[in-house]
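Workshop exercise sheet. Pairs work together: one partner reads the sequence aloud, the other fills in the structure field after running the prediction. Swap roles for the next sheet.
Pair: D.N. / O.F.
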Amino acid sequence: MLKGGALETAYYRLLGRYMVPCCVFLHLKPNHVSIIAMVSGLAAGVWFVFSPFWGGALTLLSGLLDTLDGALAREMQQARKRGAFLDSILDRYAELCIYVGIWAYFERQGSATLLITLTMFFVLFGSLMVSYTRARAEGLNVSCMVGLLQRGERIISIGVAGMVNSLVNLTARASEAPLLGKDAVLTLVLILLAVGTNLTALWRLFHVLNRLRH
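Structure field:
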């Protein structure tokens, strides 16, 4: 999520000021929040099948909770490798479920064309490779935070796209000459993710190869 930028700093400051104290008050532990984040992601995938608006909203909620667990762990001084590992695995399940839900939405609408199916395939492939290249690099003690479409950016893109897509669809139905076709917003974002995630994975590949020369 714009790693190291002013926006990220402000975001985590808000988490620390408002959300983390609420979790402490409710006696929630970081692993509890990680599990709730995964459940939100799974629910987002299911809701996407029927309503991209609510699927997108739940996707954003899942992303919020995913960043909250880390902030809570640091606040409670419970940052552990075990928790980080669990969080990473649950994140993958949640994200994959969201993508499957999006494809199922297009299938339910009768618009799961070859283009949509291939796009979803490359989004899935690229998203997994972005995560894998970082994990493999860090296993070799090489920092690998380069690239534009890390998980935070993907979750925000999908969440916002789902909500905006529904609003644009409603506007198109009410217009005699709609500017955009049905589900154009969601389709465009998926294409951008399909291209961007794989470019990010390649970027990380060459970054790590270059670092391992020295």
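Discussion prompt: The chain has one domain: 6-211. What would you look at next?
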